[in-house]
Amino acid sequence: MGLFSGGHPRYGDGMKRLLLLALLVLGGAVHGQTNTAIIPVPKLENDSYDWAARHADVLRIQQGLDPEIVLIGDSITHFWGGEPKANHINGAPAWQSVFGKYRTLNLGFGWDRTQNVLWRLDHGEFDGLHPRVVVVHIGTNNTSETAHARQNTPDEIAAGVAAICERIRRKAPGAKIVLMNIFPREQSPEHPRRKLITETNLRLAQISGVTHLDIGAKLLQPDGTLTRDMMGDFCHPTNKGYQIWADALAPVIAAAMQK
User: Fold this and answer.
1) CA–CA gap between residue 69 and residue 2 (Å, rounded)
2) How far apart (Å, rounded) are the C-alpha atoms in residues 43 and 163?
3) CATH 3.40.50.1110, domain 14-257, yes or no
4) Most buried among 63, 169, 196, 217, by the most CB within 10 A?
């Protein structure tokens, strides 16, 4: 049985919740280090936009938008489309094909790690919302080592993602949570980051109470390589890559909207 698997799919009993939270806390010490992936913090890295202004924009529009769908993530989500508007968009046609007829809030923030998402969820970005579907795609930036934050292990990243899903469940118990596997990065399947993502996705598959969606193989060539026509920088999808994501999400969203 997996670390987070088993029990009622909606975390129905109190013991399941207590066990999950205990694992997140006890799992914080990995090789003598505090698990930074589960400690909420605001902006860590600079990117091509104003992080604080985007947070303020979310708080300003969220109630009026009353979203049916909420997307939560990093730059891969941020630069897809929707509200609040990003300063550049990579996949507008794909966005329109899957979200065009729904009220959709985009809580993707470029360079965010799991700990940044936790901070945003703790500071109002999801408060008072009652979406039908929440799409979570986060963790790729936790595989990076910078001057502001260290690289996390697969177990640490999975604990951060599990903590995000738990917060969403508490705030919107009626929502379907769609948890995406972290998309493949780097051109070669032998790249250390690609292997780290693969190991992390194995841990994410053990998180219960969510609908898992893995499109990684569809983004890759048969030999496992990643091409620039799919991800121009071997990280961020082109519209071709976004369309694969949109096509995978469409039936899941349609089914949730019919209930």
Assistant:
1) 29
2) 18
3) yes
4) 196
Is-above-0.85 flag for pTM?
yes
**Contact indicator for 2, 206 with CB cutoff of 8 Å:** yes
Q: Is the dihedral of CA 48, 178, 153, 159 positive or negative?
A: positive
Quote the CA–CA distance of 178 and 201 in Å, as a whole number: 14
- CA–CA gap between residue 161 and residue 203 (Å, rounded): 10
| Residues lower than pLDDT 50 in the chain | 1-11, 13-15, 17-18, 21, 25-30
203-226: b or e for each residue (b if 16 or more CB lie within 10 Å)?
Answer: bbeebbbbeebebbeebbeeeebb
* Tokens found for residue 78: 């941020």
**Where are the domains positioned within the chain?**
14-257
